[in-house]
Amino acid sequence: MSAIRPDARAFDQLRPISFTPDVAPHAKGSVLVSFGNTRVICAATVEEDVPRWMKAQRTPGGWVTAEYSMLPYSTLDRKQRDISRGKLDGRSSEIQRLIGRALRAVVDLDKLGTRTLWVDCDVLQADGGTRTASITGGCVALAIALNRLMAEGKLRDFPLKQLVAAVSTGIFQGQAVLDLNYPEDKEAAVDFNVVMTEKLEFVEVQGSGEESVFSGDQLSSMLDLAKKGIGEIFSLQKAAILEADRKDGPLLADLSSLLR
Ligand code: UDP
Q1: Which of 41, 63, 126, 173 stands the most exposed, by the fewest C-beta atoms within 10 Å?
Q2: What is the number of the ligand 1 atom nearest to the C-alpha of 38?
Q3: pLDDT by residue (tens digit) across 84-139?
C-alpha cells in the first residue's frame, strides 16, 4: 500500500518547479527558484580577485563559492539573523559548503580566469528541500552570469561543463518518496539529498536515518527516484537560462551547445 502524501502527490512526483530569472538586477545572474512552497533567491556576482589561499598556493584559475541563509521570515517562527546571534549557524555553514562543492563540480575553474563567482542563496520561504533548491537555482544563476561574462568578452571559453541539479528523497510512512515538503520531512524516517550532473553522475549524496535505519532496497529506490526527478529538472533549468539569455541578444555558441 502506498503512503498518502500530505499534498496528495504520487510517490515519484516532484512539486511544481519554476524559475523566475533576473529577480536581482544588480547581480550578474539571478533567479527565484520555487519547489512548491520552498522559494529561494539565487544570485551570482563576480569579484575580480581570488581567495588569499589561492594566491598563497599559486593556484591558477578562479573560484566559485556559495553562501546560504534563511531570511528571518522564511520560517513559521521568525529565524534570528546570524549577525544578531553573533555566529554563523552550523546548518547554514554545512549547506553553503555543499552548494559550493556542487557548483564547482561542473565549472572548469581554469577557464574562469583570476576571479571569484559568489553564489548567494537566500531562502524566502522554507518548506523542505531548501538546500536542493539552492543548488538547482544556484546553477541557473551561475550559468546566466557566465554567459554574460562571455558576452562582455571577459572569458575566452565557456567554463560551465554541464548543469547540476539536486532533489531530496526520503522514506515517508515506509515508502520511498520524491521531493519532500516540510510536513513529510518532519515525519520522514530517512532523509536523502542527492546532487547529480546532467550526465546523471553523482556529485554528492547526503542520506541519514532519523532515529531509524534503511535497507539496501530502500536506498536503491531513493536513488532511482532522485535520478528520475533530477532528469525532469534539467529541462526547466535550461528554459530559465534561455529566457534570461534571450533578453541579452543572440545565443552564444557555447551556451547553445550546453543547452542542446
Ligand atoms: N526548518 C526551519 N527552521 C530551521 C531549519 C529548518 O523551519 O532553522 C525547516 C524548513 O522548512 C526546512 C526544513 O525544516 O526546509 C528541513 O530542514 P533541513 O535541515 O532538512 O534542510 P532542507 O530540507 O531545507 O535542505
Answers
A1: 173
A2: 15
A3: 999 989 999 999 999 999 999 999 999 999 999 999 999 999 999 999 999 999 99
Which residues are within 8 A (CB) of 122 and not within 5 positions of it... i.e. 6 or more apart? 40, 41, 43, 68, 69, 70, 71
3-state helix, strand, coil in the chain (%, to 5): 35, 25, 35
- Which residue reads 539565487 in cell numbers? 42
The DSSP result for 192-243, as a single string, is EEEEEETTS-EEEEEEEESSS---HHHHHHHHHHHHHHHHHHHHHHHHHHHH
Where are the chain's structural domains?
A: 17-249
For position 252, what pLDDT does the model report? 59
Q: Give the architecture-level CATH label for domain 17-249.
A: 2-Layer Sandwich (3.30)
Question: For atom 2 of ligand 1, which residue has the closest CA?
Answer: 75
Instruction: Give every strand in the sheet of 29-35, ordered side by side.
Output: 17-21, 29-35, 38-47, 116-125, 63-70
Predicted confidence (pLDDT) per residue in 227-251, tens digit: 999 999 999 999 999 988 887 766 5
Ligand 1 centre to CA of 248 (Å) is 36
